[in-house]
Please model this.
Amino acid sequence: MFYWLLKLVILGPVLRLLFRPKVEGLGNVPRSGPVILACNHLSFSDSIFTPLVMKRKVTFVAKAEYFTGKGIKGWLSRMFFVGAGTIPVDRSGGEAAQAALDTLLRVLREGNVAGIYPEGTRSPDGRLYRGKTGVARLALESGAKVVPVALLNTDEIQPTGTLIPAIKRVRMRVGKPLDFSRYAESRGDRFVERAITDEIMFELMALSGREYVDVYASKLKDAQLV
Model:
């Protein structure tokens, strides 16, 4: 209830007025049944604008730290993420990635919409990076169709490290659903999972117009810290 109150009454109308979202292909999102929204990741605000424009509730996962802050700031952060339908996941342990996938799989098995960033982290420079195969495992385990969603300019609206977003029209492009049911008997095959993931990333590249780099964004970020 709080999700829809926040989206339709409290925060959603303000965000729509300020950022005037322009979405191409919104009708490509199935009206019912489990759906995976596979999005490129340019900005913290991606998890705000994507659920805002969708007609169905979208569930992302986020690190548990967003829900455990103290004071007014912590309370506001917690209430925002709860209201946005985000589920906390402890990312401190070695099983963090699997915990996130298990959470999203539960959402899909209930017939709902799960959002995922196949790159696993925000792009460090606006380019599109190699996808991790968790999105393929989700598709094979759930049987859900995958809808590629390209965020086109959120890195201009809220660059990494920026707290206050620039007031600018949000632009997104939604691709046609991808059906991987033909691979249903190949669950656990890492070559099939890689092929599915690469197909999804190709669609995101075509939709976004962003340069594709065939390395993991997380490895690039780690190298920059050395």
Q: What stands out?
A: The first strand starts at residue 22 and ends at 24. The chain is about 40% helix and 15% strand. The chain has one domain: 22-62+93-224.
